[in-house]
Design a protein that fits this description.
With 522 residues, this protein is α/β, with parallel strands linked by helices. Helices cover 38% and strands 16% of the residues. The chain has 2 domains: 230 residues, YjeF N-terminal domain (Rossmann fold, 3-Layer(aba) Sandwich); 184 residues, UDP-N-acetylmuramoyl-L-alanine:D-glutamate ligase, CATH 3.40.1190. It has a 12-stranded mixed beta sheet with strand order 9-2-11-20-19-18-17-16-15-12-13-14, with helices on both faces. Helix 3 runs parallel beside helix 4. It is elongated.
Length: 522
């Protein structure tokens, strides 16, 4: 399995607060994303190399979570702190102790056999008990709904499906939120896999998640957005020498830093400086897909945009976007001159899988030119039609999970269960850069793994992927290097959708992204 370096690409990347997905990361280590194992390694280094006692880290975590709780809920009402038997429970015991000292009514609801609690968690429990915090066993009763629930049950060490009393407790927490309770998750919502973002049977739906030492990659992809609420990060005072010892697994992208890499256009600029894009697609009944990709390429700054489509669709494309030079082509040989006069090819939007489609794909792939491959272009690649499975260093593949499953000859459910591994496997098999689309889109290329959590549920509508392929094609035409073009394109696409969704997610259309893309690029 490939490991990511602490120095990804040559770009300065930092955490930001994404619209609707607030992340506060103003401390060391907040740029990288880590697996649960890597986070444990960071913890081990902090204790054994930096010399910070484990109980000190636990106390700092409790203080950070408690301060965040009071910042969001200054009058929190009665606290119910659900604690497991591991170190996550230890954080919860100390949060309860802090609340009790502040005069806040608080009850610890213990899950699991308290006799199994040991180490720093036991010390934390004994401290809370000695200070008079009320403890009760969680026995499956309904939770109060007039205050804040603190989830300190399972943490990052969960290895399988949630069962038994823990599942009962998670379901009780979620039922209480429906009735009005607020929830703070300590480190990670219980039941959410820290490595994959997958719900392990059941997971807490939190309003706020406060995570420590290392940002867990599972907080930003797959099911996570439905469970984390806002995310706050605290490094607990761990020094940079600790982070130098443990390579992060992935890096979370920030649009502003990526945009800073695009040079300003000189006053003497002309269209020849910014490349030419050819969109190939739009078989019968699918002209709109090619039109969307072409318009997106135009709006993202390509100097010239051409479209090769069915002759019957030319008038519609020109009527919608007259700046796009639309051509009707009926065969591969007819496509050849357009390929020759273009620098970047975007193949797949509305391509279909007809004999015409095969000719278009075959001619484009044989040209050897930089290529963005999407939709049915990917499906034909997976099936070995018109183009054999191969590695190329100058193409970008943009599959959704279903297409990724076909490319890897596995089920889409398997792709979703291990999105990070699937993205790496796609890159290892096909080369270039690979965008695995979805909540928390992943970009794999040059042995690196990047994550963009821009975007929103309103993007679950037709045409969004066509726009993305055009965006990436335009960036490639403007000589943005391949992995960076994919990374910037994905972030731009999601951020444009977030901006458009300010008027509402329901009914968001792919065409709504066009003015937002232009505004973001400036």
């Amino acid at each position: 399995m490939l490991e990511c370096s602490n120095h990804l690409m040559t770009w300065d990347l930092h955490l930001i607060e994404h619209p609707g997905k607030e992340v506060v990361g103003n401390m060391l280590g907040s740029e990288m994303l880590y697996t649960a194992q890597q986070t444990r390694a960071l913890d081990h280094c902090a204790i054994h190399q930096q010399g910070i006692p484990g109980i000190t880290l636990m106390s700092r975590a409790a203080r950070a979570a408690f301060d965040s709780l009071l910042e969001l809920w200054p009058q929190p009402g009665p606290l119910q702190v659900l604690c497991g038997t591991g170190n996550n429970g230890g954080d919860g015991f100390l949060i309860a102790d802090l609340a009790h000292k502040r005069g806040i009514a608080v009850t610890v609801l213990q899950l699991g056999d308290a006799q199994k609690i040991g180490g720093d968690a036991l010390r934390a429990r004994q401290q809370a008990l000695a200070n008079g915090v009320e403890f009760r066993a969680f026995e499956g009763a309904a939770l109060r709904t007039d205050g804040v629930i603190v989830d300190a049950m399972l943490g990052t060490g969960l290895g399988g499906e949630v069962r038994g009393v823990y599942r009962e407790a998670i379901e009780a927490v979620n039922a209480a939120t429906v009735a009005g309770a607020a929830v703070l998750a300590v480190d990670i919502p219980s039941g959410l896999c820290a490595d994959t973002g997958r719900v392990l049977g059941a997971a807490v739906r939190a309003d706020l998640t406060v995570t420590f030492i290392g940002m867990k990659r599972g907080l930003f992809t797959l099911d996570a957005a439905d469970h984390t609420g806002a995310i706050q990060f605290n490094d607990l005072g761990v020094g940079p020498e600790v982070y130098a010892q443990v390579a992060g697994d992935c890096q979370r992208l920030e649009l502003e830093s990526l945009l800073q890499r695009l040079p300003a256009r000189p006053a003497s600029a002309h269209k020849g400086l910014y490349g030419s894009v050819l969109v190939v697609g739009g078989d019968y009944g699918m002209a709109g897909a090619a039109a969307l990709a072409a318009e997106a390429a135009l709006r993202c700054g390509a100097g010239l945009v051409r479209a090769a489509t069915r002759a019957e669709h030319v008038a519609a494309l020109v009527a919608r976007t007259p700046e796009v030079m639309a051509h009707g082509v009926s065969s591969g040989p007819e496509l050849a001159p357009l390929i020759e006069s273009s620098e970047v090819l975007v193949v797949g939007p509305g391509l279909g899988q007809s004999p015409w489609s095969e000719q278009m794909l075959q001619a484009a792939a044989a040209s050897g030119k930089p290529l963005v491959l999407d939709a049915d272009g990917l499906n034909m690649l997976a099936a070995g039609r018109a183009i054999a499975a191969q590695r190329r260093d100058n193409w970008v593949l943009t599959p959704h999970p279903g297409e990724a499953g076909r490319l890897l000859h596995t089920a889409s459910a398997e792709v979703q269960a291990e999105r990070f591994a699937a993205a790496r496997a796609l890159w290892q098999r096909y080369g270039g850069a690979v965008v695995l689309k979805g909540s928390g889109s992943l970009i794999a290329g040059d042995g690196q793994l990047l994550l963009s959590d821009y975007g929103n549920p309103g993007m679950a509508s037709g045409g969004m992927g066509d726009v993305l392929s055009g965006v990436i094609g335009a960036l490639l035409a403007q000589h943005v290097p391949l992995p960076e073009a994919a990374a910037l394109g994905v972030c731009l696409h999601g951020a444009a959708a977030d901006a458009a969704a300010q008027q509402g997610q329901r009914g968001l259309a792919a065409t709504d992204l066009m003015p937002q893309l232009r505004a973001l690029l400036g």
